[in-house]
Specification:
Arc Repressor Mutant, subunit A, 185 residues, Tetracycline Repressor, domain 2, mainly alpha
Length: 185
């Protein structure tokens, strides 16, 4: 039994090492310029060790993207439907606490693809919870949901870059007052 736990710890350690090395490489260069050989050399592991856990570097990126989106979705799901402020604050806390990863995912070759799972989830929430009792057509709902979500990503980036003179809480309040809250009427 202790051999199994020892092996599990090694696997967890090795996967973490691969992922951390990959993230460090992404900070320095675009995804298309990262090779498995280079990653293995920096992580000081063999290529065969890498291939025990991943098919290629794109699989690591996809895993990171999915885990990040799952965290965002879980944060939204933990708050009541009407608590827009709490939902946004919690998602922005996750973004702020994972600033490096967020910035990397936003810089990848297909940044919106990185967040597709969360974007699709957010669009569905907006359409079912915010736009349900409006006279907006399905196409208008889609356009407005895309616009709101795109604005939220831009907003998140600017908060991380400290481009605003308000606290996160004040900015989220203003964002909600200017847009989403009007759909509750």
């Amino acid at each position: 039994m202790s051999d199994i736990r020892k092996e599990d710890r090694r696997a967890v350690y090795t996967k973490r090492l691969i992922r951390e090395t990959f993230i460090e490489l992404l900070k320095q260069k675009p995804m298309g310029k990262i090779s498995v050989s280079q990653l293995c050399s920096i992580a000081e592991i063999s290529r065969s060790t890498f291939y025990l856990y991943y098919e290629d570097c794109y699989q690591i990126l996809e895993e990171l993207q999915n885990e990040f989106c799952d965290q965002l979705i879980a944060a939204v799901d933990q708050k009541p439907e009407e608590d827009h402020f709490g939902r946004m604050l919690d998602t922005h806390d996750i973004i702020q606490n994972n600033n490096d990863l967020y910035l990397i995912l936003m810089r990848t070759d297909y940044p919106m693809h990185a967040f597709k799972k969360f974007i699709d989830y957010g669009k569905q929430l907006l359409k079912t919870q915010m736009f349900a009792d409006t006279k907006l057509t399905k196409q208008q709902q889609d356009w407005l949901a895309d616009y709101i979500i795109g604005a939220d990503f831009t907003y998140s980036q600017r908060v991380l870059d400290v481009e605003y003179n308000l606290s996160r809480e004040e900015l989220i309040h203003e964002f909600l007052q200017a847009g989403i809250e009007h759909f509750k009427k």
